[in-house]
Automatic annotation (TrEMBL):
Species, as recorded: Virgibacillus natechei
Pfam family, one: GFO_IDH_MocA_C3
Top-level taxon in the UniProt lineage: Bacteria
Gfo/Idh/MocA-like oxidoreductase N-terminal domain mapped to chain residues: 3-122
Protein name from the UniProt record: Dehydrogenase
Annotated ranges, domain GFO/IDH/MocA-like oxidoreductase: 130-263
């Protein structure tokens, strides 16, 4: 089965994640690239042996293209993903699904109307350590989950983005929307939903632009740090911190505290999952190292997306899942801006 893929937006996420993973997938025969900056599309077409579409409409009008990766910037996700679904394409949308509930609903509705697949790239669900942790929690090997803490931070998108400067769109309120929360935080909030099979229902938060400046040397318009407290439907309590100012080493770790022990995920570079039981036993799992900005490995996202199209199965991250994570993000932003506890 030969699947032809289209990529909208040729920034770093397309270059380092989507394009190489499509090329490595045995079922994908060709990639067509579109970017409003034609040179960027041409660069990736050369790099990955694909071709270039001169417009989004031309890309979506190609009857041979079955799947689309929407790698545009946040404010455009709802436009391109909705249009692609309505054109009869299966869509893998970068996170967040959109910047507003209304726009997210447009994408979800387009999926329902079209009957095509929609998956959103909350890629933390795909790591073996997180999947093993979920299995341990589901099987109640350590009893019920009581509390948790999670963090995701690195030195910032200007070190990762396509132009490697402080003019990155991630620092612009109208394009990024939520700063570090929409970039890194949403991954961890989705992960908590996934691991605990539960939903965050109340949040309080602090946010600030502590250190980052834009291309003019002014403090950025969005937050570079957020710390929040979370409560789930089932009454579990947790904390989360997200940062673009972890200078020196990325932190992508989560700890789950249960009745009979503790799960530590991505705390130890040798053992990606460590279990400490109440009676003093320690079990170490050597699975695979997590992907970082400095160390690009296959995320498994594209493979999972192609499999759900090929085998007609449900995506691991649905539009509905992405909508729930977006609601939490909006709650975190509101809590930080109003100094109130917000119910999602």
């Amino acid at each position: 089965m030969d699947i032809k893929a289209g990529i909208i937006g040729c920034g770093s996420i397309a270059k380092f994640r989507h394009a190489p993973e499509y090329r490595a997938n045995p079922y994908v025969s060709e990639i067509v690239f579109y970017d409003r900056n034609l040179e960027r599309a041409e660069e990736l077409a050369t790099l990955f042996g694909g071709s270039v579409a001169k417009s989004v409409d031309k890309l979506l009008a190609d009857p041979e293209i079955e799947v689309i990766s929407d790698c545009s910037s946040n404010e455009n996700h709802h436009l391109f993903s909705t249009k692609a679904l309505k054109s009869g394409k299966h869509v893998l949308c970068e996170k967040p699904i959109s910047l507003t509930i209304e726009h997210a609903n447009q994408v979800v509705d387009a999926q329902k109307e079209s009957g095509r697949k929609l998956m959103v790239d909350h890629n933390q669900r795909f790591t073996r350590a997180h999947q093993k942790a979920k299995e341990i929690i589901e099987n109640k090997e350590l009893g019920n989950v009581l509390t948790f803490q999670t963090t995701f931070g690195h030195q910032g998108p200007e070190y990762w983005g396509v132009n490697k400067t402080n003019s990155t769109w991630f620092f612009k309120k109208d394009r990024s929307g939520f700063g570090v929360v929409g970039d890194l935080g949403i991954h961890k909030l989705d992960l908590i939903h996934y691991l605990l099979d539960d939903q965050i229902e109340q949040v309080s938060a602090f946010q600030a632009a502590l250190d980052k400046v834009d291309e003019n040397g002014e403090p950025i318009e969005v937050c570079d740090n957020v710390v929040c407290s979370l409560k789930t439907n089932q009454g579990r309590l947790g904390t989360a911190s997200f940062s673009w100012t972890y200078y020196g080493q990325e932190d992508n770790s989560t700890i789950i505290y249960c009745e009979k022990g503790i799960l530590k995920i991505y705390h130890n570079s040798t053992y990606q999952l460590e279990v400490f039981t109440k009676d003093g036993e320690q079990i170490n799992y050597k699975l695979e190292s997590i992907q970082t900005n400095d160390s690009q490995t296959n995320t498994g996202v594209i493979d999972a997306f192609i499999d759900c199209v090929r085998l007609d199965t449900e995506p691991i991250v649905s539009g509905q899942d992405a909508l729930l994570s977006l609601k939490v993000i909006l709650g975190v932003m509101e809590a930080a801006e109003t100094n109130k506890v917000v119910t999602i």
